[in-house]
Amino acid sequence: MAQELDLTNDFKLVEDKVIEWRREIHQNPELSNREFKTAEKIATHLNSLGIAVQTGVAHTGVVGVLKGNKPGKVVALRADIDALPVTERNDLEFKSTVTSEFLGEKVGVMHACGHDTHTAILMGVAEVLSKNRDKIKGSVKFIFQPAEEGPPPGEEGGALLMVKEGVLKNPDVDAIFGLHINSATPVGVIRYKSGGTMASAQRFVINVKGKQTHGSQPWLGVDPILISAKIIEGLQTIVSREANLTNEAAVISVGKIKSGVRFNIIPESAEMIGTIRTLDYDMQKMINRRMEEMVPAIAKAYGGEASIEIRTNTAITYNDPDLVVQMLPTIKRVAGEVNVQTQNAVTGAEDFSYFQEKVPGFFFFLGGMTAGSNQSFPHHTPDFLIDDSGLLLGVKTLTEMSLDYLNM
Ligand SMILES: [Zn+2]
Ligand SMILES: [Zn+2]
Question: Is the pLDDT score of 167 beyond 60?
Fold first, then answer.
């Protein structure tokens, strides 16, 4: 039986460093797949701790492996490191004034999703665990992941590419933990959901083919705009009439329609693109299958043709229910029972899901809103704000979860 580790002092010593790292990273944000300086900073830190480091994983990712002195399981911890093309708007002394180019346009760059806090927290966890490596049974793999917000068009990247490059292998990972700071959750609070936590995001493209004719003589053609309207109605009935919404939520949204040139011409074709959000793989399969059946069938009923293509952008962030049950006592011990709360699913997506497709994982939300305040700004906006007094809880939680998991 391993002796109970008292890390109080180690946590106290690391807190100021974590806040300082976070502020430096915040002031020097880098866009997805361009996190060169951030990666260098992480690698330098891990090297200084005597952790074996691999750089250039999935372009700019950094992976460190800390081996304990006894053999055992392997737990992975993941932090995403990229920033967004957003111009920061606040009076912070460590506000970003960085600009860059994104899709040919000059943009401000800002850590508007809080990945700077994730990076600093994981650097802190690495420091605390490396000081206690002689008491660790097994190994801890630190995954600093680029491009969570998505690689630029035409490039691969993010968790998917890391998995493809074998980040979960050698040593093989048994379980993975990750967190996301939240600007609307008070400092000190942790929120989680078992099962489907964040949605899978799929993109669909529908092409409708009709027959062009004069707007005054619809009987001589086939109207692709009318068919598009019927398809949109049909798709909404898949969610409202066929999906078991008491199980999990689902969303189908058409976000763009393109058709026609002139008021008195019934055009030849129409194109629609949209998004599907699901939190359960069986439901996703059903929805995809029904969309593929319905789209050509509706077009055919009105004398036209239609095809649909569905592409998965992000998998379901699925918290393994057994792992959640296993780890909750640790989280409650660290954060205090009243501060650990369940939450509803989020229909936004997170590419942590690609790790969870391969190994059991637990992804939770950490409070970043000043305690007692009720003002918060949404993620991905210029006013987005995180109170860094909440970061130490992230360090403590990931550290203790790793140790407890490895000792189970
Ligand atoms: Zn984001
Ligand atoms: Zn994020």
Answer: yes
What is the average pLDDT across 309-324?
A: 97
Which ligand approaches the C-alpha of residue 178 most closely? Answer: 2
Residue entry with tokens 């359960």: 280
Question: Catalytic: which of 30, 35, 127, 148?
Answer: 148
**Distance in Å, CA 230 to ligand 2 centroid:** 36
The average confidence (pLDDT) of the chain is 97
Sheet arrangement for strand 250-259: 250-259, 269-278, 200-209, 305-314
Which of helix, strand or coil describes residue 351? coil
Give the pLDDT band of residue 5 (cuts 50, 70, 90).
Answer: confident
Question: Which are the contacts of 52, defined by CB distance < 8 A and separation ≥ 6?
Answer: 64, 65, 66, 67
pTM reported for the whole predicted model: 0.93
The catalytically annotated residue of 10, 82, 174, 280 is 82
Q: Beta strands 190-192 and 361-369: pairing type? A: antiparallel
Q: From edge to edge, which strands make up the β-sheet containing 61-67?
A: 52-57, 61-67, 137-145, 70-80, 175-186, 361-369, 190-192, 340-342
Kind of pairing between the strands at 200-209 and 269-278:
antiparallel
- Evaluate whether 16 touches 29 at the Cβ level (below 8 Å): no
Whether cis (ω within 30° of 0) applies to the bond prior to 171 is: yes
Residues constituting the chain: 408
**117 CA to centre of ligand 1 in angstroms:** 13
Q: Which ligand is nearest to the CA of 116?
A: 2
**Hey, is 245 helix, strand or coil?**
coil
CA 208 / ligand 2 centre spacing (Å): 35
**How far away, in angstroms, is 109 Cα from ligand 2 center?**
14
For residue 80, report the distance from its CA to the centre of ligand 2, in Å. 8
Active site residue 82: yes
Look up residue 15 and give its amino acid. Answer: E
Asked if 371 and 187 touch (Cβ cutoff 8 Å), the reply is: yes
Closest by CA position to 334, among listed 387, 395, 405, 386: 395
User: Could you write out the DSSP letters of every residue in 178-205?
Assistant: EEEEEEEEETT-EEE-SEEEE-EEEEEE
The residues placing their C-beta within 5 Å of ligand 2, an ion, are 113
The C-alpha angle with vertex 203 and arms to 199 and 209, in degrees rounded to 5, equals: 145
